[in-house]
Amino acid sequence: MAKFISTASAYVSRLFHTPNQRVVIAGMDSCGKTTLLYRLKANKFAVTIPTIGFNVETIQRQGVDFTLLDIGGGCSSLARMTHIYFYPESIVVFLIDASDTERMDYSILELKILLDGHYDIQHMVIVFTKLDLAEATTNFPDLVKRTKAVVSSYKTLGFQCEVYDDLNRFSAATGAQMDILMKRLVSIANKVPTNVMKEPAQKASEPPKGHSPYEEFRKRATEESKHVDQKLSADEFMARMIVGKLTDWSHYPHIRAGFITLCDCLLKESVVFEATDIFLEKLEKMLKASPGRFRNTVHRTMTTFWLHRIYMAMLLDMQDRGSLPSRDEFHGFVLRHLDLMDGRSWERHYTKDLLFSPSARDNWRLPDRDPLAQTIIDIPQKEEKESKRPPSSAKPNKNSEILKRFAYATLKTAKTANRRRAAVINETFPLIQSQIMRLRAESPGAAEPYSETQAYFWIQILHAAVQSLPPDYGLDISRLSYESFKLLFPNLLAADDAWKGYYSPEQWDSIEARMSTILPKLNPLPSIFQAPDKTCMDEAITSTLDEKYASKGNRSAPDGQPSMEDIFLQVRLAVKATSLSIYSNTNPPDTHEGLIRHIFNQIIAVHPEPLVARKSLSIVAWDAVQFLVDDLQVTHAVFWSRMVLSAFYTMEASFHEKAAQFQTMEPGSVAAEKMQNELFPLFLTASPELIWDGLWKSYYSDVAWKSEDAGKMYLLPDLRQIPYVEGRKESSWM
Ligand SMILES: Nc1nc2c(ncn2[C@@H]2O[C@H](COP(=O)(O)OP(=O)(O)OP(=O)(O)O)[C@@H](O)[C@H]2O)c(=O)[nH]1
Ligand SMILES: [Mg+2]
């Protein structure tokens, strides 16, 4: 355990790159910690969202850099997480809500838990807040007395603990006496040793002074490239590797094998992790094929580390050269990225203790020294390849475009969610219908009336197209956008009149065809087409790569973000699925949509008066995901409960009124169930992004999210902060 704590602290210390004074704001849920954080950060009153996990901000006052951590009350029950907030040299500001007479005992209890916890705290100050409220001022003298009594009962605290009984107007809402608190924190910071990020215990090996290591690396790479194995093509090289027939398995061939494996995974969703699995599989085959010949063992963290580095170098090529390196160009690639030749570069990121631990061997662990480089920021967006796009018809037919897009979303959803196609189709029809109705209402004549036959026709045509894709070309529809898919079948999908080969115009436009699916008179609908030609397939792959990697430079669209049609469909399916099954709160949900619904149900069960139930909504949402915590998915648990809760807080007043009505209903009654089933669709339609199980990609890198560390403790997002103040919800999404 001790070891885990030190790794966790190391992680937290790496979050902050400048020497700074850490201030931990603690206290019972809803006592005003986040309001204080935001007041200190922006000198504003902010409408906050109950915090799950923690928030971090940095501020500078009188030459001191402060890092403020605001710990959500919702997590105080979780011992596993609390230890990561406190380390030597932290100042703790313990807040007590002076207006909450009802829960005063709990505040005191929380304080005792902290004082009993033997945390390595440098200095603690106790501050009473919400003193702008009348009941708080009445309560204040008594509260101060009780608090002082508690503190003085601790004779051997090992750190100084002050009760700020003179801040008798203190309020984060009005900002009163904020300056006094800050001045005191500055003076404490100046007395205690500033929390400088500790130097790693052992220094990573420095390159020899005097000459550049790169010359050495270049020489070595050039030498190595002359080796007989290196004359093999990428395919031959890998084929030899797995049968244990490579004559040399030093650093250079290792990197090459990693490079080739990555090249084969470029279209995958999590390139580095999928490549790690494949690489390790190959390595195992190699070791088995030739026992005792190679010193290697299967080491997951080492493999992922190197693959990540190679991948970053490949993306750098994409940025600098406009294209990813090709599989057979390894040597040129290494010469452009000579730092990959430094076989000991892991020392900058890992201590030996961590890297050579069984846990790092078996699982992906984050570095305990320097964090890994993140994706590069600036991959230029490709110009629209107008010339390659099929000529668009003079007057684009809105209907057929909507129908085709939804047809594609239907097939994709059926595949990725592993649902019956017929069930997904049933949910698609009403969506298309309402989409077309909306268009017609906005501007009459903008679209033809909805026709079920036409909708079904395009689903069938796209299905036949999907069926005709060769299995081994890396063209997986769950990874292809509709835009890229279109390139595979330029004639079929560019044209709006493909129906003419099957339906007569009378049939196509008939009222009967609108009302229900009718079969074509001319020819039966196809179930397969000819496979697309190779040029089209290459174009579709290039376009997918462009979309995937161009989006890296533009954080608003994370890789794999579903289309609007996909989302509409998934929301509808989720609403349907959850209304059909009775949600038991004891059984942990096993699907993503079930998880969202589960958290939602718990929240509305106590909304709008959670404190009456002695629980804030953050605790309720946090309790809802305890099964994930038990399953060692702590960061996932915090993330999803936090996202659902913050979406809940940003719902409109009318929704909250309905939710309040729900409270007045007999639990479990038909009316209550009906209302619950009405509230969820409203909620999900307002925050459809929640239905995407990849939503974390806007906030976390793959390497952080998928690490063992993220499972054991709450990792802060490394790409973008999760909003903690209402009204900062981003709508970049659609
Ligand atoms: N009147 C008044 N209200 C305050 C003050 N500080 C916070 N509040 C209100 O108290 C409620 C809870 O505030 P938060 O800052 O979210 O509380 P928290 O401690 O961060 O709560 P958790 O994140 O759930 O642990 C909000 O409605 C705030 O507006 C204050 O100084 N005066
Ligand atoms: Mg908070």
From TrEMBL:
Species the sequence originates in: Polytolypa hystricis (strain UAMH7299)
Keyword Cell membrane annotated: no
Xref: PANTHER family: ADP RIBOSYLATION FACTOR-RELATED
Region (Disordered): 199-225, 377-398
Protein name: Uncharacterized protein
Bias (Basic and acidic residues) ranges: 206-225, 380-389
GO MF annotation terms: GTP binding; GTPase activity; metal ion binding
Residues binding GTP, per UniProt: G27, M28, D29, S30, C31, G32, K33, T34, G73
